[in-house]
Amino acid sequence: MGSTSAENSNNGSAGVGRRDLIKRSAALGLISVPTMSFLSACASSGGDDSGDKAKAGKKTAKNPLGVNDTAQMEFVLFDGGFGKEYAEDAVKIYETNFPKAKVKFSATQKIQSTLQPRFNQGTPPDLIDNSGAEQMDMGVLVGKSQLADLTPLLDAPSYDDPNKKVRDTLRPGIVEMGQFDGDPVWIMYYAYTVYGVWYSQKALDSLDEQYPETWDQMLAVCEKAKKKGMAGWTYAGKYPYYLPFSLYPMIGKVGGVEVLDAIDNLEPNAWKNPAVKACFDAYYELYKKGYVLKGTPGLDHIQSQTAWAQGKALFIPNGSWVENESANVIPKDFDLAVSAPTGIDSSDKMPFGTIWASGGEPFIVPAKAKNTAGGMEQLRIMLSEASSKNFTSKVKSLTAYNGGTDGITLTPGLKSGVAALEKAGDNVVNPRLQDWYVQLQKEQIGVAGLGEMMAGRLTPAEAIKKIQGYADAAAKDSSIKHYKHQ
Amino acid sequence: MQHGKYRFIVGFLALPLGLYALFVVWPFIQSIYYSFTDWTGLSPEFKMVGLDNYRRMLDDPIFWKSLQHSLIFALVLPVVTISLALFFSFMINVGGRKRRGGPVVTGVRGSSFYKIVYFFPQVLSIAIVALLFAFAYNPDSGAINSILRGIGLGSVQPLWLGDPSLALWAVMAVLVWSTVGFFVVLFSAGMASIPADLYEAALLDGAGRASTFFRITLPLLWDTVQSGWVYMGILALGAESFAVVQIMTTGPGGPDYSTTVMVLYVYQKAFRDGQAAYATTIGVALLVVTLAFAALVMRLGRRERLEY
Question: What CATH number should be reported for the domain holding residue B262?
Answer without folding.
Answer: 1.10.3720.10
